[in-house]
C-alpha cells in the first residue's frame, strides 16, 4: 500500500510517500519546505505570508517527493491530507491540492488530524511498535496533550494545558530573552552549553501537586519575565548575557520537569505499556532523555518511543502513516466534501 501524504497546517509545506508492508512502514520520501526563515523576521508566523508560500511550494514539493520515491501518481493507492487543526489559510492549500489530485487521478482520499499524525510519527519512523494501552505526550507550538491510546483510532484526552502550549511558551520566553525565533531550538541549543548556574535562579514547576493531569505554562513564562527584570536591576549589563542563558536553561528544566512528572503519573495510573512522544518540542534533547530515564527508573517494562529527529516537527510522512490506519476502517471522504477544519479536536 503506497500513500501520498500532504501537510500544510502551519509554516511547513510537506509531502511524503510511505509504503506500508504488513505492519511496518517504509518512508520512500519525505520532502519538507520550511518557511521559518521568512517568518523569523516577524518573530512569528504571518498567516497570509504562509498561505502564499504554500501555494507556490505545494506542487513542486509533491513532484519532488514522487521523484525521490521513484513513484508515479498511478502507483499511489491513497492520498492522505492534514485537514486540521491549524491555520485555515494554510490548511486550505494542502486540502484543495489533495482534493484535486484525488479527483483527477481517481484516488481514495483520507483526512488526517495533525495531532494523530504526531501521535503515530514515533512508531512509524522509529520502527518500534506501540503496545496498547499506550500514552502519547504531544508537545507542539499549538498543543500540549496527554492522550490515552486504547488502540489505533481509539483515543481519550487525559490532560491538557490550561493556557499556553509548551512550544508557544518556549517561543515566548525566547522572545523575552531576545534569543531568536523559533524559541525551542534556540533555547535548547543554549542550555546544552550551560553546565552550572552562577546566579540564584529558580522558576516554579506549575501545577505539579494538582490531582489532574492538566498543565499550565503561562505563569512560568511570566515568572521568567519578572525574574529577568529583577536580575537586570540587580546586576550590571555585562552579566546579562550569562543571566539570559541561565534563565533559558532553568525555564527548559522547569517545562521538562512538568511534562515528565505529569506523563509518568498518567502512565502509572493507566497502566500503559508504551509512552510515545510527538510534536515539535519532542526534538528537545532534555525532554527525550529525562522522559526515557524517568520511565526506565520508575515503570517496569514500559517502552518509550520517540520519533526520529527529522520527524519531530511537522512533516507529511506522519500524515501518510496515520492515514494508513484509516484505510482499514474505510474512512474515506468524497473529494467534493472535504473542507479544512482549523479547530478540529481529535479528542
Ligand atoms: O509540531 P510543530 O513543528 O508545529 C506545530 O504543530 O505547532 O511544533 C513547533 C514547536 C515550536 O514552538 C518550536 O519552538 C518547538 O516546536 N520546538 C522545540 C524544539 N524544536 C522545536 N521546543 C523545544 N526544544 C526544541 N529542540
Ligand atoms: Zn505539529
What ligands are attached or bound here? 5'-O-[(R)-(carboxyoxy)(hydroxy)phosphoryl]adenosine, zinc ion
CATH level 1 name of the largest domain? Alpha Beta
For the report, how would you describe the main beta sheet? 5 strands, mixed
Please count the beta strands (DSSP E, at least 2 residues each).
10
Structural category: alpha/beta
Shape: globular
Indicate the CATH architecture of the largest domain.
Answer: 2-Layer Sandwich
Give the termini separation: 27 Å
* Corresponding CATH superfamily of the largest domain: ATPase, nucleotide binding domain
Overall pLDDT score: 97
Can you tell me the number of structural domains? 2
User: How much helical structure, as a percent, in the residues?
Assistant: 40-55%
Order of helices and strands: EEEHHEHEHEEEHHHHEHEH
Output the radius of gyration. Answer: 21 Å
Unreliable parts: none
Quote the beta fraction: 15-25%
The largest sheet has its strands arranged as 3-2-1-4-5
- CATH fold name of the largest domain: Nucleotidyltransferase, domain 5
- Counting DSSP H or I runs of 4 or more residues, the number of helices is 10
Amino acid at each position: 500500500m503506497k500513500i501520498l501524504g500532504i501537510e500544510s497546517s502551519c509554516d511547513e509545506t510537506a509531502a511524503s510517500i510511505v509504503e506500508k508492508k504488513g505492519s511496518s512502514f517504509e518512508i520512500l520520501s519525505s520532502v519538507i519546505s520550511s518557511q521559518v526563515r521568512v517568518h523569523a523576521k516577524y518573530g512569528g508566523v504571518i498567516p497570509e505570508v504562509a498561505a502564499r508560500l504554500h501555494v507556490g511550494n505545494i506542487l513542486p514539493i509533491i513532484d519532488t517527493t514522487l521523484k525521490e520515491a521513484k513513484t508515479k501518481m498511478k502507483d499511489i493507492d491513497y492520498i492522505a491530507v492534514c485537514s486540521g487543526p491549524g491555520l485555515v489559510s494554510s490548511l486550505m492549500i494542502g486540502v484543495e491540492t489533495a482534493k484535486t489530485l484525488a479527483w483527477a487521478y481517481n484516488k481514495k482520499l483520507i483526512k488526517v488530524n495533525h495531532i494523530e499524525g504526531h501521535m503515530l510519527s514515533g512508531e512509524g519512523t522509529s520502527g518500534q511498535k506501540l503496545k496498547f494501552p499506550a500514552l502519547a505526550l504531544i508537545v507542539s507550538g499549538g498543543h500540549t496533550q496527554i492522550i490515552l491510546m486504547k488502540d489505533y483510532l481509539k483515543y481519550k484526552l487525559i490532560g491538557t494545558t490550561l493556557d499556553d502550549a509548551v512550544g508557544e511558551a518556549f517561543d515566548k520566553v525566547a522572545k523575552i530573552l531576545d534569543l531568536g525565533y523559533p524559541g525551542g531550538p534556540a533555547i535548547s541549543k543554549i542550555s546544552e552549553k550551560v553546565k552550572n548556574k552562577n546566579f540564584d535562579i529558580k522558576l516554579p514547576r506549575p501545577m505539579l501537586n494538582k490531582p489532574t493531569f492538566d498543565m499550565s505554562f503561562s505563569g512560568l513564562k511570566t515568572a521568567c519575565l519578572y525574574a529577568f527584570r529583577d536580575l537586570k536591576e540587580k546586576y550590571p549589563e555585562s552579566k546579562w548575557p550569562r543571566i539570559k542563558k541561565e534563565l533559558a536553561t532553568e525555564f527548559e528544566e522547569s517545562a521538562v520537569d512538568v511534562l515528565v512528572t505529569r506523563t509518568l503519573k498518567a502512565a502509572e495510573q493507566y497502566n500503559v505499556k508504551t509512552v510515545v512522544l510527538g510534536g515539535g518540542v519532542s526534538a528537545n534533547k532534555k525532554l527525550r532523555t529525562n522522559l526515557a530515564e524517568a520511565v526506565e527508573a520508575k515503570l517496569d517494562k514500559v517502552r518509550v518511543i520517540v520519533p526520529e529527529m527529522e520527524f519531530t516537527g511537522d512533516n507529511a510522512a506522519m500524515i501518510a502513516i496515520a492515514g494508513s490506519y484509516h484505510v482499514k476502517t474505510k474512512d474515506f471522504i468524497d473529494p467534493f466534501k472535504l473542507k479544512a477544519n482549523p479547530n478540529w479536536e481529535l479528542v
